[in-house]
Amino acid sequence: TLFGGVNLVVKEASCTAEIVWDLGRALGVPLTAPIAEALYVGLITDTGRFMYENTGPNAHLMAADLVAAGIDHTAIYRRVYEGWPESKLRLFARALSRAKRHAGGALTMTLLSAEDFAQTGAEESYTEGIVDRLRAVEGTKVAALARELLGGDGRWKVSLRSSDGDVDVSVIARAAGGGGHKAAAGLSTGMQPDELVAFLADQVTALAARARALLDARLLASVYLELRGGRERALEFGAVSVAGAVATAVVQAAYGARPRPLAPRCTEDERARHAAFIADTLKDKAIWLQLDWD
Fold first, then answer.
1. 61: which of 111, 122, 161, 221 lies 20 to 30 Å off by Cα?
2. For 235-239, what is the mean pLDDT?
3. Which pLDDT band holds residue 232 (cuts at 50, 70, 90)?
4. Count of Cβ atoms closer than 10 Å to residue 258 Cβ
């Protein structure tokens, strides 16, 4: 993003095809059959056939407009997702049979070497869809497919997908010089398989822990403020100092610190109630705080 001389960035758009569709309408470009088909292919592939969380209302309005323009969506679906050559089947079989879990199962990953493409006779484009199968594995937060670039002097291309939104895969990609968005990103690297797996596992572990900590922080702050001042204040916990202290403490605790956040002075009964509620909230968590209420 923002690499060009002129940049058109629409954060709410589901995909580049949606931006092009909007731009074409604004410029009065006729929606010819070839244009409509190309836009529809971009739409269904980048939204995971409307399954990814980046799919908004405008994506469905776009699809309706393209269907109304006369595209054969059934034929397009078959061309994109069916009619596999045998070499693609062989490549998928190798990729799925090698899938491994890392970072406690949060990362599901597989690798394909240049030799795999040579032995199966598969084209590089035949990898489309492999990472989505990995993403579907229970417990997966990030799915990754690494394939060795043909004629790429040992470089690897990595496709990343987030399964539940907890981990922003664009953060991982940018850390290695790549890019993308929260749900789908990619990178090219000279890291070799062992180093690459370790890098991705470390990134997923850290980002998943951060997501858990932020969730715990919001929950704890809401519990505390509900007790101290009602629901309307709980919705604004980020602006309240004590909530900020609790939230900060939880985030720090996720990384091994044991902070002692200070709370406003309260009565003995209030202190017991607050401590009981927070202890109950944390009873099934891996994060524990030592609170100083005086």
1. 161
2. 39
3. very low
4. 10
CA distances from 40 to 5, 101, 152, 160, 293 (A): 27, 34, 31, 22, 59
For 92-111, the pLDDT digits (tens) are 999 999 999 999 999 999 99
SS3 content of the chain, % helix, strand, coil (to 5): 55, 10, 35
d(CA 219, CA 278): 9
* C-alpha atoms less than 13 angstroms from C-alpha of 118 in its C-beta half-sphere: 7
Query: How many angstroms separate the CA atoms of 18 and 235, rounded?
Result: 34
Residue 54, φ and ψ in degrees, nearest 5? -75, -5
Q: Please write the tens of the pLDDT for every residue from 57-79.
A: 999 999 999 999 999 999 999 99
Instruction: With CA atoms as reference, report the closest residue to 51 among 62, 39, 59.
Output: 59
Q: Are 106 and 143 in contact (CB under 8 A)?
A: no
Non-local CB neighbours of 189 within 8 Å, separated by 6+ positions: 155, 156, 158, 176, 177, 178, 196
In the block, which residue shows the tokens 């809401």?
222
Q: How far is CA 142 from the centre of its chain?
A: 7
> Considering only CA atoms, which of 180, 189, 132 is closest in space to residue 157?
189
225/235 Cα distance (integer angstroms): 9
| Rounded CA separation 165/235 (Å) | 22
Would you call 256 helix, strand, or coil by DSSP? coil
